[in-house]
Structure formats: structure tokens, C-alpha cells
Design brief:
By secondary structure, the protein is an alpha+beta fold. It has helices at 93-108, 114-143, 166-169; strands at 6-12, 15-22, 24-29, 32-36, 43-55, 62-74, 77-82, 85-87. Strands 1, 2, 3, 4, 5, 6, 7 and 8 form an eight-stranded mixed sheet that branches. The protein has a domain at 6-90 and 144-153: Sandwich (ATP Synthase, domain 1), CATH 2.60.15. β1 (6-12) and β2 (15-22) form a beta hairpin. The chain is globular and about 55 Å long. 25% of the residues are buried. The longest helix is centred in the C-terminal third of the chain and has 30 residues, at 114-143. The chain is built from three helices and eight strands; from the N terminus they run ββββββββααα.
Length: 171
Amino acid sequence: MSSRNFQLNVVDVHGPVYSGRVVFVVIPGVLGELGILAGHAPLLSEMQAGELRIHPSEHQTEILFVEGGMAEVQPDTVTILADSSMRVTDIDPRLAAEKVAMVETHMRQEHSSQMDFRKAELELQKEVAKLRAYEHYQRSAQRGGMGRISYDWQRPPLEAAPHIHVEALED
């Protein structure tokens, strides 16, 4: 094991997503991107929707899209607890653009409550981040900058995430 790499574990609501030794990872923190190398000082960070760029070697890049969550950084291990994630290759840019237009229309409506507005704003940020991740992937793939973009996930589609009924938990 080289001291120039570290263990990266990514988990979301469906279970393990990625686990392996990497040399660098870029995390979409709420205050900006965090670049992590081996030996990084310990830290906890909230994540926003965006690209999780994984560099298993110096010449490879893999991109996952995460919809927020938490990142724990230790000198030899980084653990990502994502709210949900998807392969960047599974992003449908047409669908994301349609959702952006729909949310923008909803946000312009004057009768929306402040809570509805905040929910719409978060949805808008998520869909715009999806479009950016997809466009970044397309540009990098055209330049030959992507290493392997292969995922071996045997998991349900993102839409099948479990729904938690808060009212049932209060009993």
C-alpha cells in the first residue's frame, strides 16, 4: 500500500456504491469543492448535490453524482454518506432540463409559501448540478480525459428510494 493513496468508501440509501484505494477525491462541499489527498487532516463536511470525482490512479477519473450527504475525512480513509447517488452516465440531460424549467415556473408563482420556495430552490440546485455533472463528463470524455467509467452496481433505480413516513415513527 502506497502512502500516496487512501481508502474511499461511498454509501447511499441503497447500500455500498464504491469502495477502493484512490489517490485523490473531490467532494462537493456546501461551501465549495474539497480536494482530498492521503494524509488530509480529519474533517466532517456536509455535501451539496454535485460531482464526486474519484481518481483511483493519477491518470483515471470516475464521476458519481451525489445528492448531498456527509463526508468524513480521516488521514487514511474517506467515508461518503450520500443521500442518494447515480452514475453520471445515467443522467438524462433532457429530463433534468425539463425539471429545471418546471421548478423555475413553480418558483415564479406568487402564492408559493416560503417552505415551498425553499424546497423548489433545493430541487433546482440538484437538477442544475446534474446538468453540470453530465456536461463535465461529456467534455472530458470527448477530450479523452476520462479513465474507466464502469460501475458494477446491482441496485434498484434511484426512483425506488424508500419513503419514510414520519407520522408512523412518532407512535
